[in-house]
Design a protein that fits this description.
The protein has helices at about 45-50, 55-75, 85-90, 95-105, 115-125, 165-170, 180-195, 215-225, 230-235, 240-255, 255-260, 275-290, 300-310; strands at about 10-15, 15-25, 30-40, 80-85, 110, 135-140, 145-150, 155-160, 210-215, 240, 290-295. It is of the alpha/beta class. It folds into two domains: about 5-115 and about 300-310, Nucleotidyltransferase, domain 5, CATH 3.30.420; about 130-295, Exopolyphosphatase. Domain 2 (Nucleotidyltransferase, domain 5), CATH 3.30.420.150. A six-stranded mixed β-sheet has the order 8-7-6-9-11-10, with helices on both faces. Strands 3-2-1-4-5 form a five-stranded mixed β-sheet, with helices on both faces. Strand 7 (about 145-150) and strand 8 (about 155-160) form a beta hairpin. Helix 10 (about 240-255) packs antiparallel against helix 12 (about 275-290). It starts with 7 loop residues before the first strand and ends in a 6-residue tail after the last helix.
Length: about 325
C-alpha cells in the first residue's frame, strides 16, 4: 500500500474539546473521513487565574484519549499526530501533561504556534468548500482563543489569534447561565474591545463570505437542524442569519442547563458555555455588519492532515 492510502489519525487538543479525525487524502487532494469523535475535557477552564491545567481537566482529557485510542486501534492506524493549541501554549504545566500522554500512548504532541493554528485551520475549512476565486473571512471562537483569518481560495492574506474564547468569557462573567441586559452589554463591550485590536479590521468587508468553524458553530447548527445523530454534510450546509442567531441566543439564555441538554443537537457538556460562544460570533458580526455566516465543522485537524499528506497549498 502507498502512504497515500494509509489512514492517519489527528487529535486536536483544544481548550474546551478534544477532536479525533481518522482520514486520508484522496487522489483529488480532498480528505476522506473514516471516523470522527469528539470529547470534552475543558482543559482551559480556570487557566486565566491559575496558569495551569487542573488535575480534574487532565483526568478528563486522559479518559477521552483512552476512548480515541480504542478507535485508532480498531481502524489499524499506526500514524497518530496530536496537536495542541491555546491551553497547551499557556499552561505552565503543559509539559507534564504532554509527558503523560507520551508515556501512556507513545504519542508525540506538537504544540502549534497561533500562526500555525490559523494556517492549518484555514486550510481545513477550504478543503470543505467549492472554492471560488474570491476573498473569504473565516473565524473560530474556540475555548481559549479566537482566530480571525482573511484569504482567498489558495492563500491567507491576514490572520490574527486573539487570546480569549468561550471559556475565557465564561470565566470573566463568573459562569452565569442567564445574563441580564446589563451583563449582556458588559460582555459585548468587552468582546468588542478585543476585536478592535485586529490589525486588519479596516479591510474586512460585510460582503465577503463569512465562515465560522469550531464547536460553537457546529453545535448551533446541529440544534438548528434538530440533529439526533451528527451529520457532517448537514452541518456544512447550514447558514445562520444574524437576527436568527440573536433569537437563538435569547432562547438559550432563558433556559436552564437541564433544558438546554434536552435540545436535539446539543453537544453534551457545551450547554453552559454555548451562549458565550454565540455572543462572540454576534459581536464580530455586529462590529463588521456581517449579515450571515456559513458553518464549517472542518478546521485545524483537517488542515493538519492535509499538511501531513503533503497536499496543503497554503
Amino acid at each position: 500500500m502507498s502512504k497515500l492510502s494509509q489512514p492517519i489519525a489527528v487529535i486536536d487538543v483544544g481548550s474546551h474539546s478534544l477532536l479525533l479525525l481518522i482520514g486520508r487524502v484522496n487522489e483529488l487532494g480532498r480528505i476522506e473521513v473514516i471516523r470522527q469523535h469528539f470529547g470534552q475535557a475543558k482543559l482551559g477552564a480556570g487557566i486565566d487565574h491559575s496558569q495551569k491545567l487542573s488535575g480534574q481537566a487532565i483526568n478528563r482529557a486522559l479518559q477521552v484519549m483512552d476512548e480515541f485510542k480504542v478507535w485508532i486501534d480498531r481502524h489499524g492506524v499506526s500514524e497518530v499526530h496530536v496537536i495542541g493549541t491555546a491551553a497547551l501554549r499557556r499552561a505552565g504545566n503543559a509539559r507534564d501533561f504532554i509527558q503523560r500522554l507520551n508515556q501512556r500512548y507513545g504519542w508525540h504532541v506538537n504544540v502549534l504556534t497561533a500562526d500555525e493554528e490559523a494556517r492549518y485551520s484555514y486550510l481545513g475549512v477550504m478543503d470543505g468548500l467549492n472554492k471560488e476565486d474570491r476573498k473569504y473571512l473565516v473565524m473560530d471562537s474556540g475555548g481559549g482563543s479566537t482566530e480571525i483569518i482573511l484569504g482567498t481560495r489558495n492563500d491567507i492574506e491576514e490572520q490574527q489569534s486573539l487570546d480569549f474564547g468561550t471559556l475565557t468569557l465564561a470565566g470573566r462573567m463568573q459562569g452565569k447561565i442567564k445574563l441580564d441586559m446589563h451583563e449582556q452589554q458588559t460582555a459585548l463591550n468587552w468582546i468588542k474591545d478585543r476585536f478592535k485590536t485586529v490589525s486588519f479590521q479596516d479591510r474586512i468587508k460585510g460582503t465577503w463570505p463569512f465562515i465560522v468553524y469550531g464547536g460553537t458553530a457546529s453545535t448551533l447548527a446541529a440544534i438548528k437542524e434538530k440533529m439526533n445523530h451528527y451529520d457532517s454534510l448537514r452541518i456544512n450546509s447550514t447558514i445562520f442569519h444574524r437576527n436568527e442567531l440573536w433569537q437563538f441566543f435569547e432562547t438559550l439564555n432563558d433556559q436552564t442547563p437541564a433544558q438546554r441538554r434536552t435540545l436535539p443537537g446539543m453537544e453534551a457538556g457545551r450547554e453552559e458555555v454555548l451562549t458565550y460562544g454565540a455572543l462572540i460570533i454576534l459581536t464580530f458580526m455586529e462590529l463588521h455588519n456581517l449579515q450571515n455566516f456559513r458553518v464549517s465543522d472542518r478546521g485545524l485537524r483537517f488542515g493538519y492532515l492535509q499538511m501531513m499528506e503533503g497536499r496543503g497549498d497554503i
